[in-house]
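BACKBONE GEOMETRY TOKENS
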Amino acid sequence: DTLLNDPELQIEKPPIWVCDVVAAIFNSLVKDNLDQKVEEMRAVIQPEFHPWLAYYLVKNRASKEVNFHATYIEFFEKLKQPRIFEMVTNMTYDCLRVLLKSVDQAVVSTSHRTVLKNLGYWLGQITLARNKSLKSKQMDLKGALLDAYEHGRLTAVLPLVCKVLEGVQKSKVYKLPNPWTTAIMSLLAEIHDVPSLRTNLMFEVEVLCKHLDIKIGDLKRSDLLSGKRPPPGSNDLSSNARQPAESKGEVGAGGFPGLGAAKAGAEAGGAARGAEGA
């Protein structure tokens, strides 16, 4: 919860008894009682509290309960309040934006990355899977990947993007060869081939391909990483690739490349001459 306690996201709460009833509805919600729970929700929630309901769903439920995503979506479809669904979508964008403000923390925090992935999957299910487009101003997947590559944040951003794209699996509009999907998959394939990319990041792309029933080898690679480089010591690369040059004897005193090797060579030469003189 603390990850999404940002002041930007604060919504006026309804009376405490309403909050309690809503929590009880969601706590007991299953596919078999959807119609009953929809009627209970209609009886208790007033239009002025719809923004809070959207906030509650995204922050307290969707961010944690991935196994219930499909049930929640069906629940809100049966509620027949399109305005609420729009609020839910916008709140999801807002929550992701807040989480990505501290993306450097997500790189090293498993719990942060888990919430990102959960909300990424949720976003894909309420948009792409329902043949609704992503708002590029709110969530530019391609731009996010390129920025993450250059700043060593793929560890947090790439799994998020892959989870969003899982929504393509249920879509009639966004399945390949949809140009938008094709472009992002081509970039993911190019990232997958980056030398020394961490195995878990490669695996995320491969799992997505399996979900979408495509072979990664069949994807055309983009050329968007050309001229771009990950930062030194990037967490996105395997530990061997992150080793500083100094540990390999390539950087010497003062940080100048080659001085360490030159010094070692000089010492070896001196030792050899000393041996000859003896």
About this structure: The first helix runs from residue 16 to 27. The mean pLDDT is 86. The CA atoms of residues 196 and 237 lie 5 Å apart.
